[in-house]
Structures are given as C-alpha cells and as structure tokens.
Fold this sequence. Notes:
Elements: E1 12-15, H1 18-24, E2 30-35, E3 44-48, E4 55-59, H2 66-83, E5 84-94, H3 99-110, E6 115-122, H4 130-135, E7 141-148, E8 159-161, H5 164-167, E9 172-174, E10 177-183, H6 189-197, E11 201-202, E12 212-216, E13 223-225, E14 229-230, H7 252-262, E15 268-271, H8 278-285, E16 289-294, H9 297-310, E17 318-320, H10 326-330, H11 334-344, E18 348-349, E19 361-362, E20 369-372, H12 380-393, E21 397-402, H13 407-420, E22 423-428, H14 429-434, H15 467-481
Amino acid sequence: xxxxxxxxxxxxxxxxxxxxxxxxxxxxxxxxxxxxxxxxxxxxxxxxxxxxxxxxxxxxxxxxxxxxxxxxxxxxxxxxxxxxxxxxxxxxxxxxxxxxxxxxxxxxxxxxxxxxxxxxxxxxxxxxxxxxxxxxxxxxxxxxxxxxxxxxxxxxxxxxxxxxxxxxxxxxxxxxxxxxxxxxxxxxxxxxxxxxxxxxxxxxxxxxxxxxxxxxxxxxxxxxxxxxxxxxxxxxxxxxxxxxxxxxxxxxxxxxxxxxxxxxxxxxxxxxxxxxxxxxxxxxxxxxxxxxxxxxxxxxxxxxxxxxxxxxxxxxxxxxxxxxxxxxxxxxxxxxxxxxxxxxxxxxxxxxxxxxxxxxxxxxxxxxxxxxxxxxxxxxxxxxxxxxxxxxxxxxxxxxxxxxxxxxxxxxxxxxxxxxxxxxxxxxxxxxxxxxxxxxxxxxxxxxxxxxxxxxxxxxxxxxxxxxxxxxxxxxxxxxxx
Length: 482
C-alpha cells in the first residue's frame, strides 16, 4: 500500500496516472472535484495545441469493452470519494454513451441518496454526420453528474438575469413602476383585503374568473435561478480566444458556474484529468486553491504555460512527475516523446505529422529543421534522408535528436559538412537531460555559444494537419518503434 500524505500541497501539476497520485493524497482534503475523463465513444482524438508547438495523441477506446472502462473509472472514483471533504462535491462530465452506467457506478460509490443532479449541457446545435442525423435525432448535449459526499455541502445557487422575453411580461405601468398581472391561484378574504388596501388587486375581467395582483419589476431580485438544463453556456467556437486546439476543451464559463456554485474562495479544487487546464485556470482566477493531474507531459507543460500567460507570470505551478531520465522518455508514446523534445529546445512542431518530409520541427528563432528519433543507434540512412529534407526546405543547418548514433552516421555528417555545405548536428537525448537549467536545453554541441530562450516559442503560421493525417501518423510511428 502506498504511503498517503498527511497534508495536501496545492498549486501542483502532477504528470502521472491519476490513480497512483490519488492514492497518495490525504483523505478529506479536497472541496470540489471536476473530472472530464475520456468518453467511452470509440473515437481517436488527435490534438494540436494552438501554438503548434504541442501535439498530443490519445485514444478513448478501451480494449475489453464497457466493463473494463467502468472498472477503470470505478477505481479512480473510489479514491476521489476518499479525498473529498464531508461537505465536498463531485461533477463527472460524460456523454450519453455510458452516462447511465457511470451513474450506477457513482450510486454504488457515493450512495444513491447523495445524487443531486443530472445536468444537461446543451453544448452545440447538433453534432454527428448528415447520415446519422437522417436516421436519428441530432445529438447536442453532454451530461454532468453531480454528487455530494455528505448530506450537507457547499452550495451557492446559480442565477441568471431575467431574459428579455421575461421582462416583456412587465408591460403595464403605474406610479410605482412596471408590473405584470399574476394570477391568484389560492387566496383568503384577508389576502384580498390587503391587496385592495395596497392598490395591487386586479378585479376579474368576467364573472367567475379569478383575481390577479400586480407583481412589480422593481420589487423582484432581477435574477432567476438556473435549473438542471444549461442552454446559456456555448461550446467553444473555432475562433474563440481561449481555444487551444483541444477538441474536447470545455469553455471557461462552464467551469466558472461549477466552481462558483460548489466552492468558496480558498477552497481546494481538484481536476484529475486536467487536459489543457481549463479547470485549473478558472480556479486560479476565482481565488481557489487547486491540484491538477494528467498523464501527458504535453498537457502538463501546456497548463503551466497557460497559467503563466493568464497571470502575466505571477503564477508558476510546481511540476511533479515529468520525465527526467532517458528510460522514462523511452516509455512515452511517439507524439509525446516528440513533443517533449521540441518543447525542451523551445522549437516549433512541424505542421504536418504525416508526409512531413523528414522534418518534425524547427528550431527557435532561426527555424532550422529538426528530426526526432525515439530510437538508439540511428544510422547513416537517417542522415541521408534528412539531407534530402534539408535541401527541399532550402536549409543548410539542421539537427537530428535521438538516444544514440552509429559511427557511420557521424561520418556522414562530417562528409556532408565538408563536401555539401550541410551543417547537421547530432544531439543525444541525454545531452538535453544533462543541460543546465539556464541553457534551456540548447541544440548546440558542447562548447558552442548558447543563447537563453524566452518562454513562448513563435508560431509558424502554417496550416494545421487534419485528424486523419495525425491518426495515420501516430499508428505509423507506433509501428516503427515497436
């Protein structure tokens, strides 16, 4: 059994499987959990971050079917229940593919008496192919399952200003202001006399009809409580400023509502599938403490940069669990490994992951080509192919990064420099790991002049790859490293 901590450190982004991290967290230390786990929808997502410097590949397809998926989720939810405070709340974001099964699982863990709401979020007018829409109703909503740990919980009822349609009902006016006519469904003689004295009673328009009374707009709160169908929070549109290129990214307005209604300032918010960091960014802005977990190094690095940008550098999360050894880097998926390398040298990822002509990224500032190989003993053939790619790109300087290189590869680099004027540098992964922090992972060999690099790399402005291209690329890369 892992040793569980006695205190919870906040402001931390953990790069690891959330089950392992949750098991180490102290009991009853978190006020609010929001999780947006991979949906059981048999789709492959290929994610390109908006600055083109990050590409992340993941599948929400589970071998073994639904029961494997539910078991995988149950293990994690049980730990989430343990770390919640007695007054804490949990919101699980899902879609209709498995929501009913997930609700049964949550009932088993939390108890059916602690189920509070099934929130329907109408995220978009419709989705799905035209063929699917022709054979069934268009799909336009997600579900958010809301549970509490105890019988009392933090709660601030969410409200919205009156709609224009509702305000239009206040169409009569007297010396007190605008009012609407509201029917008196039940009343006593005493009530009628009081309303008569206050000049609020409205006589029936015909014999036998019921009385009405004047309901004044200026005596109302001006707001109406929100129910469990949310139609006022739109999904991110392609041009939204907060969009990072993550296809399942949720809008900040959605997390604002959840965090504000179920936590207070200073409370601890946990997102165990933090992805691109919307929960973390909103919790920070609303004055909550937070903890984020994601298995992807790319995601964790992105959340860090998002926080720095959102706070003008005032907030920099503690990063725990990022790869720090060559052995750890060998275990990464191909795109994650490539992302780590490009990010380490503050480069820019190539805009195409398939048909990239041997160029995986470009160096900072001067935009020289970079090729990344997640392998040992990279040979002369790789160098030969990279020379062709450099000529095609019109470049005379480039870098190949791998775990190690053969003697033939180094000899070809020397020949190309003398005979062809191509300056290729072979960089080992270990040399990047050994680089001093102030060097920010330089691409230059030992002894060269190293320039410190700024936080944010430039974007290339090139067209983003299609999902189909990235799916094919990820499968091909995985096969190549198998």
